[in-house]
Amino acid sequence: MDHGQELERIRDVYNAEYRPDANDRRYDWHPRNPLSMFFRHAQEYALVSLLNQAGLDLENMRLLDLGCGTGGLLRFLTNLGANPGRLQGVDLLDYRVKQARSLCNQETGICMGDGGALPYQSQVFDLVSQFTVFSSILDGELRREAAAEITRVMKPGGYLLWYDMLQTTSDALRGLQLSEVESLFPRLQVCAMRRLHAVYTSRLLRRSWRLALLWNTVPGIKKTHAMVLLKNS
Q1: Residue 145 neighbours by CB distance under 10 Å
Q2: Reduced to 3 states, what is the DSSP secondary structure of residue 89?
Q3: pLDDT tens digits for 135-145?
Q4: What does the alpha-carbon distance between residue 91 and residue 131 come to, in Å, rounded to a whole number?
Q5: CB atoms inside a 10 Å sphere around CB 133
Q6: C or N: which end of the chain has fewer Cβ atoms within 10 Å?
Q7: Measured distance CA(193)–CA(208) in Å, rounded
């Protein structure tokens, strides 16, 4: 697939399916929708657990969020102690870049770009994060290029914070198992991992928040996402 066509396909998918009306809280991924809140809280808890396990000091790190969207992760990292002036975000969609710039600290750098050609010098970031970017890319070559770009901009000894789908039922997305993540990043070593979001969580949330919480504590239930912290050798 031509990379330009793939990038345009991704833009079309996000514009059609993930561009909510700010006043419509019925949309599943609206920040005030219970479904969005449930998944976000699970992500944040897992993220803090991985950072604490690795003993990372965010205050002194240069951070890049690939596919930063409206800047939610950047703002959360700031709340955890990251220096907003050492944060960068890049996104494929212009309207998300504009929202991120308006919502994030003015010292945080936000720009438009794609993962296959990051607009940064080599070996400048202590931590790079990507949340559900790679599952949005169907073209294998573009995935490999994005992985190579992430590795390029990371410092030796830097980290990748990876959160993505293990499985999906959407034709517009494709999940990745840990073995594929490791093959995309041969120079990186897995430090820690958390599997998140038990299957059928979305259905249960429409009935009961407590029931969904309980379901996610049952041992052996298959999970749909993984958060992984990897270190650059």
Answers
A1: 18
A2: strand
A3: 999 999 999 99
A4: 12
A5: 24
A6: C
A7: 28
